[in-house]
Specification:
single chain; 381 residues; alpha/beta; seven-stranded mixed beta sheet; three-stranded antiparallel beta sheet; globular
Length: 381
């Protein structure tokens, strides 16, 4: 039953939906009218605008965040039989990208307070077989890449950063993605900080990596669409996939990027509203994403009897979720299972609250009251 006087807040407390600023429809019509919907000059302009926003030489648009990770690992030389260290506390897409290369995961612990890897958890996980590490910026929280790079002392290990949650976040030294000691991958899915409907971006370390990714994203074909249309043949230089970003998606992304300062302010304000609403609740621990530097992608809490609390909130119409069930316990990755007590504990406690730019502060306060009610009801049993 909806509490009296909270209809609008209640509606917003449900599942997330993409946030559009208005000009996306006009941009889509323009892209449709051009008559060619593959990778074209609209996608190229989006790449240039993202590169300028981040202050990097190049950015390569692809079909999804998963495609970005897969291509980044390929460009880093990761292949069959290689070991890649990755936190178990991430979406399964991160691990599937590793498996798509023929490599295998070595699961790492995360910090209980941030749900991100640290230099210490990476050192514990790295073995003589490790070829790469994939830190995940959970919730958009920026992490100290220098400590990650220094973790495998004396080893030449590639770092591919899964920043699916973290577009727009900043480290102490600059934008996430601007540190070209690592390859960075972003996701522009439906409810990310910036959406293309679906899409992703790779920030390569070098021009050579950029060329490798651009060729691989288009089935290994070296020539651009314009070059192919003006010739009688083309050259396939190696393995490739249909991973390019269509111009329709890029058109949406360009509008979103032009309004990103609004997204940043709204998301930080929303996270701070949650901190005020749930941060002092007994039995609820808020996962800190460092909102002074992050552009938050979600709001996560740790609670006891999580499944009961989850069921209570869902019954009351609140779109709570679980991000994420630990991957090392998944059947698909059973061959690489190892004890990870912190992650396993988090997997029983983690709960994500509705987090999208349609939410109002009234919605957040309502969700906070229902979360308190859920926790107290469970404690009273």
């Amino acid at each position: 039953m909806t509490p009296q006087g909270t209809d609008a807040a209640w509606a917003m407390a449900r599942n997330a939906a993409p946030y559009l600023y208005g000009p996306e429809a006009e941009a889509l019509i323009e892209a449709l009218n051009c008559g060619y919907y593959g990778h074209n000059e609209i996608t190229a302009r989006f790449e240039d605008e993202v590169a300028a926003f981040l202050g990097v030489p190049d950015a390569v648009a692809v079909a999804s965040g998963t495609a970005a990770l897969h291509l980044a690992l390929i460009a880093a030389g990761i292949g069959a039989g290689d070991e890649v260290v990755v936190p178990s506390m991430t979406f399964c897409a991160t691990v599937q990208a590793i498996r798509a290369c023929g490599a295998y995961p070595r699961f790492a612990e995360v910090d209980q307070e941030t749900l991100c890897v640290t230099a210490e958890t990476l050192r514990e996980a790295i073995t003589p077989s490790t070829r790469a590490v994939v830190p995940v910026l959970y919730g958009g929280r920026p992490i100290d890449i220098s400590s990650i790079l220094n973790a495998p002392a004396g080893r030449r290990i590639t770092v591919v950063q899964d920043a699916a949650h973290a577009f727009g976040s900043r480290t102490h030294t600059g934008m996430v993605g601007a540190d070209l000691r690592v390859v960075t991958c972003f996701s522009f899915g439906p409810i990310k900080n910036l959406t293309c409907g679906q899409g992703g971006m790779v920030i390569p370390r070098t021009p050579e990596q950029a060329r490798t990714i651009r060729t691989a994203r288009m089935l290994g074909v070296a020539e651009t669409a314009a070059e192919r249309s003006a010739a009688t043949s083309y050259e396939v230089n190696g393995m490739g996939l249909r991973y390019q970003m269509p111009s329709l998606n890029a058109a949406v992304g360009r509008v979103q990027l032009a309004h990103f300062s609004q997204a940043q302010d709204m998301r930080r304000g929303l996270w701070r509203a949650y901190a005020a609403a749930v941060g002092s609740l007994d039995g609820v621990d808020l996962v800190d994403v460092d909102p002074e530097r992050a552009v938050p992608s979600l709001c996560a809490v740790r609670v006891q009897a999580r499944d009961a609390v989850f069921a209570f909130l869902r019954r009351r119409g609140v779109g709570a979720g679980v991000h994420y069930p630990p991957n090392h316990l998944q059947p698909a990755f059973a061959a690489w299972r190892r004890p990870l007590p912190v992650t396993e504990k988090l997997g029983r406690q983690i709960l994500t609250l509705p987090f999208h730019q349609h939410l109002s502060e009234d919605s957040v306060r309502l969700i906070g009251r229902l979360l308190e009610e859920a926790v107290n009801a469970r404690r009273a049993r």
